[in-house]
Design goal:
Keywords: Membrane, Transmembrane, Transmembrane helix. This protein has about 230 residues and is an all-alpha fold. It is built from seven helices and two strands. Helix 1 (about 5-15) packs parallel to helix 3 (about 35-50), helix 4 runs antiparallel to helix 5 and helix 4 packs antiparallel against helix 7.
Length: about 230
């Protein structure tokens, strides 16, 4: 009696287009009377069809001659669309980063002007009523804003550096938002605080857009795939 495993191995070899250890007559004769081997043969053929291979007339299974071209033709349009979307998104985010940087520069210049008015100097001596301490704080604040602007211009030039600046400004916005909530409760909120927080939020959104456009899509999609995957 022919062993089922040998017949099934011969069937697998036939489907894969490999030499069969048994003759076709023996395999076909056994297949005509064995339900288990018939079921195995049907499942193997169904699997080969799901793999989208071409079955020749002799029952074997070989890949198409232009398989690489078929794969490239199927993947290339999607890849081009994704690359185009990333390019457009990165270009828009760069423009927004430059605009945000200019706004930070303008704010810094305004602070420097205010600092000069608080500490007028006459003949090398501070004028009466000057407030050098507050003026010094305003100069420091202006320096911080100029630093933000320089960082934004750098990221607009080199988007791969966006991650570090995004983390720093994100932490800063979080703390400033907490202080704003406190001042709101104490009814001491000033319009300058709100405007500054909004500008910082605009900057963060621009940085986040640049991060997503540069390399974030891949990371986010990988994370979503991991979250949506079932248990192993």
């Amino acid at each position: 009696m022919i062993d089922h495993e040998k017949v099934q191995a011969a069937l697998s070899a036939r489907i894969d287009g490999e030499p069969s250890p048994l003759s076709d007559d023996i395999v076909d004769s056994h297949l005509a009377v064995c339900e288990d081997c018939q079921r195995f043969h049907d499942e193997a053929l169904a699997l080969s069809r799901r793999l989208r291979f071409i079955e020749p007339d002799d029952g074997g299974m070989t890949p198409p001659a232009d398989l690489s071209e078929v794969i490239i033709a199927g993947v290339e349009p999607e890849w081009r669309r994704a690359a185009s979307a990333r390019t457009v998104g990165l270009a828009v985010s760069r423009v927004l980063l430059v605009i945000a940087g200019v706004l930070w520069v303008v704010w810094g210049i305004q602070l420097l002007g205010s600092a000069g008015g608080l500490n007028p100097v006459i003949d090398g001596v501070s004028a009466p009523g000057a407030d050098p301490a507050t003026a010094s704080l305003l100069v420091d604040a202006a320096a911080v804003r100029f630093s933000f602007a320089l960082g934004l211009f750098t990221v607009a030039w080199k988007p791969r550096l966006v991650s570090s600046l995004l983390v720093v400004l994100g932490a800063l916005w979080t703390f400033l938002f907490g202080f704003l909530v406190r001042d709101f409760v104490l009814d001491t909120v000033e319009s300058g605080q709100v405007m500054g927080l909004l500008l910082l939020l605009l900057t963060l959104l621009s940085l986040a857009w640049a991060w997503l456009s540069h390399h974030g899509y891949v990371s986010v999609r990988a994370l979503l795939r991991e979250l949506g995957s079932g248990p192993v």
